[in-house]
What we know:
- The complex is a heterodimer of chains A (493) and B (489).
- Chain A has helices spanning 5-26, 31-56, 78-105, 110-129, 133-152, 158-187, 192-198, 206-223, 231-238, 241-266, 269-275, 277-299, 304-324, 328-359, 370-373, 375-389, 395-410, 413-439, 458-476, 478-489; strands at residues 59-62, 73-76.
- Chain A is mostly helical and 493 residues long.
- The longest helix of chain A is centred in the last third of the chain and has 32 residues, at 328-359.
- Chain B is 73% helix and 4% strand.
- Chain B contains 19 helices and three strands.
- In chain B, helix 5 (112-131) packs antiparallel against helix 6 (135-153) and helix 14 packs antiparallel against helix 16 (395-409).
- Classes of the chains: A mainly alpha (493), B mainly alpha (489).
- The A-B interface holds A 386, 389-393, 398, 401, 404-405, 408-409, 416, 420, 423-424, 427-428, 431, 435, 438-440, 442-448, 475-476, 478-479, 482-483 and B 66-70, 74, 110-111, 136, 139-140, 143, 147, 151, 154, 156-159, 161-162, 165-166, 169-170, 173-174, 177-178, 181-182, 185-186, 188-189.
Amino acid sequence: MSGNLHMFVMAAPLVGALVVNLVGRINHRAILPLVLGFLTLSLVAAIGTMAGVLESGGFTYTVGNWQPPFGIELRIDHLSSLMLVLVSAVALIASFASLQSVAKDLADRQHHFFTLYLILIAGLHGLILTADAFNLYVLLEITSITTYGLIAMGRGRAPLSSFNYIIMGSIGACFYLLGVGYLYILTGTLNMADIAARLPQVNGTVAVATAFAFMLVGLWIKMAFFPLHGWLPRAYNDAPIGAGVLVAPLMTKVTIYLMLRVMFSVFSPQYEFFQHPDVQNLVVWGAAIGIICASALALGQRDLRRMLTYIIVAEVGYMVGGVWLANGTGLTGAVLHIVNDALMTLCLFLVAAAIISRNGSLAFDRLQGLYRRMPWTMAGFTLGAFAMIGVPPTCGFFSKWYLILGGIEAGQWPYVVALVFSSLVNAVLFFRIIEIAYFRGGEGHGHDDHGPVTEAPAMILAPLLVSAAALVLVGLATGPLVSNLIAQFVPVF
Amino acid sequence: MTIQTSILPLAAILVSLLASIPIMLSHRVPNLREGWTLLAGVTKFAIVASMLPVILAGGGYEFVLAEVIPGVPIALRVDAMGLFFALVASFLWFFTSIYSIGYMRSLQEHAQTRYFASFAVAISATIGVAFAANLFTLYLFYEMLSLSTYPLVTHEQNAEARASGRKYLTYILGTSIGFALPAMLLTYAKAGTLDFTLGGILAGKADGMTVAILLVLFIFGFAKAGVMPFHGWLPAAMVAPTPVSSFLHGVAVVKVGVFSILRVIFYILGTDNLSSLHLGGVVTTLASVTIIVASLVALTQDNLKRRLAYSTIGQLSYMLLGAGMLTAAGMTGGVLHIAMHAFGKITLFLCAGAIYVASHKKYISQMDGLGRNMPITYTAFLLGSLSIIGMPPLGGFISKWNLVIGAVDGGQLLLLVVLLVSSLLNAAYFLPIVYRGFFASAPEGGHDGVREAPLLCVLPLSVTALGSLLLFFFPDTLLRLIRLALGLG
């Protein structure tokens, strides 16, 4: 394998962060082209990396040619290249809306905001690439700390919500770090592949189980797996719009990816699924309960963005449950859902950004007549809603297909019921909004009074429509996506 | 049977879907907008009809759109059963479109563009269901139909219409996601395919209990068929404008439900399989209860459209009853009733709409003596009623006759009783309407000044009423299609 394109994926936003901080401080108008330029570069490099992997398979890469255990090792395979493309594409699309809303809300702090923003994106790419359990911790903290900062820039209670998130996030990070420490003591290495090679020698000890449990619980806190989700709804709801559109689609999804790495690159399916079958059952049950509870909590919300945050928590349950079904179908569904859920959440948070920009409020009773005032925004919303409900041919249907099928194959009926229940709840949630925004407002023939159309600014609307179109296109591309990329990663059980 | 790859099935679906774009664009020029609707209607029927010779010769068409899930493509295939349904639906759509124009303009309805666009998407989805080559594709179009008809039900936008829309979605979407989707996935997990194959794909792959569960999940999951207790959406959906009730809730939507269940029974679960597992009784029991209860409730309804809605619920279960008999004549009668009931019921609904346009009357008790002012409409109503009751010389007789033979063949005399009692009930709730229209004396103030509805309304209902009559004399093509569909040679 030639080339080090993948380095550009991570380096572009990192360099961009420095440049934006220095140049943007002097001239705010330079921020926009800089951010877009570096993120475009990152996306192009990510696509190149994926093309390379598709052509000649995955590989590991040692930064600066320092060999492990001293050097930094990166792993580029089908799964990580898919994640690179996903993260860089979502980041680029989201950045349009962020640039627009931050220029309005945080005019004098734009360069601060986008410095953190780009470091966060670089950190996410690092998390995807790293093949070292300790570097993973460092990068996890980098992404978390930048996120704390971004969220705290919001108005009102945002600093408090961010603080709450810091506490929970730090506990999660400590758990993970403790787990890594155990593994280091047991195996004498931090490199994932080395740990995996040496673990069989200490197999079956309580220490290994403890390490595994610590790492996993740490990641579960970070991904807001029910009931460890308490921080997420507040943090994501109070975040500035510009941060929400980036953080909400990506953070939980990348953490799911990290869980996959820990489970399949450090530990083995044999270990987590078959050595402790009770644990496996327990996690799937937990996921099922989490999905049902989070969906029920979403039903109680009267604000679009708060509702979405609870849906995110439910979707985390989808993916964790899917991975722990311990069969190829469920795992395929979980990986597919990482992609799909990132896109759906992006689309709907962009809708929220669009509505905020014109309507000022996301409370349900203020959404009347939106279909007439913002037809394109609401068209995107409708597609996003269909994807969340799981209406074919939007992408949400297909990952749900694999997840439910995996549940049936594994005989995990509570999980199947939870997924179906959650789909039904989503239908209620979104059609409630559609009904308010389309049909309410002026009894009888009221909507024939043609009020002004006040569509969202192009900087928000354009990415919104792109992401909405992606929901259908990615849905229709499920076949190639699964057979070319995801199936290459899914191990044979 | 030779299957040829062809774009025809796709074209038949897309005609009306694409028409929705110029319909929306020409919203300022109503004549042009309706021109698009009619043009799409003619084209669609022509495309569907052009496939008839090949199908009758035992051939078929297919077209694969995309291999979305490995092994489960979005694919279309035209076979005898699909074409049978598509012929009925596309023929009636054209006349409903003409009627819609007359109806919506006479009442100066609002949001006509949204109305015609949604309608166009709905008919596309209907044809998509007919031509689906596998259960997944069918499900896709089924959901498309649910979503595109939602704006039609909520058309009035008042509190009642919104509540009905909510009820509609809750029943239709709730059951399809809650029952049909898991059933489809369970089928896939057992059979490893979802392709429609005559004789079923589950024989020997699933035990009796699983098949029984699947059967019940599918019958309730396709709630558009209105099997009790998931029938409540249909009377509620009657708040929609009458052309919607007549075509969608008399023909397209409800028959898509029945069609989907029949597809599953014949092509997924397999009639031989069901017969050897003795599961036909599950279908006939559910259907019989629905038939009798719905007919009794229909007797009590004073709102004409609601009475028709309950009548529809009962009649839909006739089709399932026939399939559940698992005898050749019974199944033939069940499938044939899709067409016969479609012509009869659409006539009745169109008449109800014409009466509303002409006199603004909704309740049967207000319609005494109205028949003398509107003789054409009332004559058509009589013909439609007789067809649904099953009297010769109208089409409904042939399907009911087959059902009766099917019940006798299967030795299921109880079902014979159900059929006879229900026919009497049909007569009891339909004929008084006609009788009061012609012979009862008009109420105080009379119906002075009430005349026949506009030509655009009267013409379609006359055509469909005549269609009911003609189907009695010329059912051969339809019967031939059904024999091909069921593999009866």
